[in-house]
């Protein structure tokens, strides 16, 4: 057969295959794309579905079945998709015998090879596009850097004659190298000693293995110049992350960018590197100490990393206290809030600034920025960051797995003090979140629609229990949330709910909890509030105390919300009367809240009374 005939035969074989299988594969891929785009909305719809009344559930059930079956069918038939590419490429390059061999099973390798190749090509093309994108926005990068942390040459602390020599050289050149930074972060200075900076001599200088670093002076600013040596991926990682974190987190500012040589100049942060402080106290952490240490020579890379962490933890709390560790974790949460996965949490990447004692994170060339945060893979990366932090700092900050462990502990425990039903999001929920009389369901059903605007307001909750309500007000913009709770057994559930919302939102919430009796509010000096609430707490007090508390509340706020309870099964006869609507209306009218509004949906056992001062 001639070459032309062989090519014609191959083309006919490809056309035949596409005609018989192409439409099927196109439909399969379409189903998969549709199903994947519905995954997160499906979870949210499921939560909303469970909270609907019975009659409405059947009206929304059909879409769940349709989309669910589509996803299952697409997953089952996914195996057939690569065969289109397999048969096409193999039939173009090889004779029929080889094609038959692929059909017998070797074609399973094709998807793996193609996926690897296309991933590589996509990454290269993406990097080219990203470099061009940031080149066009260099002015914005430098503008964001100008608003960040900047150290001047005068503030560096050089000796007077050395500082004078440096300024003379800066008059002749735009950039002057002040010091080289070695593998352990020690400085080899060219202008004498630098205060608060670990230094070394030329004989002990340990050349960096990966990215070269220099301390440089640019005009009147001091920075660290980082050479990426052609590694475009690391260059872009650090550039994107630092820009995303500018003004949001304690990180170095961008002073200059060179896209031709792939270098970044970042602001110099004067202060103690945590790794160096630990090493001074006897921890074996420096590379120059570890490389020839008998305890490390025969360890694998993973074992070596764990051994280094153990060395650091041994003296960690001689350098920092729990408050500083929590502050470092707050900085990490701010990074997560901005969409940045650090991916390289270690002692050498944390600097305690010399004057403010604020922790700064450095070295983001292994980090990743995602402007569509809270996808599944992003959440996995965030939990990996938190677990690495727990490992390094001997803490128990919550992750998804740890939250489920806590939920199991509460369910197996004997205590009656358990968290309210709460949906943290991201597929993590506690209790019957569809119950409209408690926690999550109550908040969405009756509280949130009837509360006054919360942004910038002060809120007081009498009997805050697990602080769920206070945390929701903070999440919706309240300036300060204060709760009074006499029962100390609520401390553990309250801490869990607080840390759960902080995990979900990558934020820090600080409700102020006062351990005291409700009537002790009469003698407290806690200032005025924009909103005071009492959810089922007044009914436990004497009539005289109820009047005194409501009267005192009228001097603290102009809006008082009381939750009643009309279900006789939940109260003793004497407390049921005090939880009734009529009793609480009279209490409001007698004590300064002449105007009130009753929110009592039909069949709902926990109506709200919203009292407003005239």
Outline the structure in words.
This protein is α+β, with helices and mostly antiparallel strands and 614 residues long. It folds into three domains: 3-130, no CATH class; 138-393, Transferase(Phosphotransferase), domain 1 (Orthogonal Bundle), CATH 1.10.510; 401-612, Vaccinia Virus protein VP39 (Rossmann fold), CATH 3.40.50.150. It is built from 22 helices and 21 strands. The strands form five sheets. Strands 1, 2, 3, 4, 5, 6 and 7 form a seven-stranded antiparallel sheet that branches. The chain has a seven-stranded mixed sheet with strand order 17-16-15-18-19-21-20, sandwiched between helices. A three-stranded antiparallel sheet has the order 8-10-11. Helix 1 runs antiparallel to helix 5 (81-93) and helix 5 (81-93) packs antiparallel against helix 6. The longest helix is centred in the N-terminal third of the chain and has 35 residues, at 3-37. It is elongated and about 85 Å long. The N and C termini lie far apart (100 Å).
Q: Report the uncertain regions.
A: 17-21, 35-40, 47-87
User: In percent terms, what proportion of residues is strand?
Assistant: 5-15%
Output the structural class.
alpha+beta
Give the terminus-to-terminus CA distance: 100 Å
* SS elements, strand count: 21
How many individual domains? 3
CATH topology of the largest domain: Transferase(Phosphotransferase), domain 1
- Output the radius of gyration: 32 Å
Describe the biggest sheet?
Answer: 7 strands, antiparallel
């Amino acid at each position: 057969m001639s070459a032309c005939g062989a090519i014609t035969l191959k083309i006919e074989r490809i056309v035949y295959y596409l005609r018989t299988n192409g439409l099927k594969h196109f439909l399969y891929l379409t189903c998969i794309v549709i199903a994947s785009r519905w995954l997160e909305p499906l979870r949210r719809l499921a939560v909303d579905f469970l909270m609907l009344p019975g009659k409405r559930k059947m009206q929304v059930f059909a879409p769940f079945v349709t989309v669910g079956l589509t996803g299952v069918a697409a997953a089952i038939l996914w195996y057939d998709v690569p065969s289109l590419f397999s048969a096409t490429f193999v039939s173009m390059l090889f004779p029929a015998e080889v094609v038959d061999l692929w059909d017998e099973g070797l074609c399973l390798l094709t998807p793996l090879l193609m996926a690897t190749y296309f991933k590589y090509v996509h990454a290269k093309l993406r990097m080219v596009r990203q470099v061009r994108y940031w080149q066009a926005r260099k002015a914005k990068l430098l503008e964001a850097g100008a608003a960040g942390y900047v150290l001047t040459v005068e503030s560096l602390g050089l000796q007077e004659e050395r500082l004078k020599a440096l300024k003379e050289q800066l008059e002749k050149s735009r950039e002057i190298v002040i010091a080289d930074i070695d593998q352990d972060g020690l400085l080899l200075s060219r202008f004498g000693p630098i205060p608060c900076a670990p230094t070394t001599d030329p004989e002990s200088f340990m050349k960096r293995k990966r990215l070269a670093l220099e301390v440089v002076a640019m005009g009147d600013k001091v920075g660290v110049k980082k050479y990426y040596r052609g590694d475009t991926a690391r260059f872009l990682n650090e550039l994107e992350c630092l820009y995303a974190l500018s003004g949001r987190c304690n990180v170095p500012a961008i002073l200059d960018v060179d896209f031709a040589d792939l270098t970044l100049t970042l602001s110099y942060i004067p202060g103690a590197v945590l790794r160096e402080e630990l090493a001074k106290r006897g921890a074996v952490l420096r590379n120059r100490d570890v490389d020839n240490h008998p305890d490390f020579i025969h360890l694998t890379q993973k074992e070596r990393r764990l051994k280094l962490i153990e060395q650091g933890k041994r003296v960690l709390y001689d350098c920092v206290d729990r408050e500083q560790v929590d502050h470092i974790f707050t900085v990490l949460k701010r990074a997560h809030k901005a969409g940045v996965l650090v991916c390289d949490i270690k002692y050498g990447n944390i600097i305690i600034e010399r004057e403010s004692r604020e922790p700064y994170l450095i070295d983001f060339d292994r980090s990743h920025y995602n402007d569509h945060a809270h996808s599944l893979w992003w959440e996995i990366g965030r939990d990996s960051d938190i677990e690495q932090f727990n490992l390094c700092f001997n803490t128990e900050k919550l992750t998804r797995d740890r939250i489920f462990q806590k939920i199991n502990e509460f369910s197996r425990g004997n205590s009656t003090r358990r968290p309210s039903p709460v949906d943290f999001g991201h597929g993590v929920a506690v209790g019957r979140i569809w119950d409209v009389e408690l926690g999550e369901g109550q908040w969405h059903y009756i509280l949130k629609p009837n509360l006054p605007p919360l942004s910038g307001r002060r809120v007081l909750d009498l009997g805050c229990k697990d602080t769920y309500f206070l945390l929701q007000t903070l999440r919706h913009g309240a300036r300060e949330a204060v709760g009074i709770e006499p029962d100390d057994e609520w401390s553990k559930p309250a801490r869990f709910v607080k840390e759960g919302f902080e995990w979900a939102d990558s934020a820090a919430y600080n409700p102020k909890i006062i351990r005291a009796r409700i009537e002790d509010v009469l003698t407290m000096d806690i200032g005025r509030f924009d909103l005071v609430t009492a959810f089922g707490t007044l009914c436990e007090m004497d009539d005289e105390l109820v009047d005194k508390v409501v009267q005192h509340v009228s001097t603290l706020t102009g809006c008082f919300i009381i939750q009643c309870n009309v279900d006789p099964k939940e109260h003793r006869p004497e407390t049921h009367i005090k939880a009734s609507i009529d009793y609480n209306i009279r209490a409001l009218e007698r004590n300064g809240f002449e105007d009130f509004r009753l929110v009592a949906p039909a069949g709902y056992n926990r109506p709200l009374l919203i009292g407003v001062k005239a």
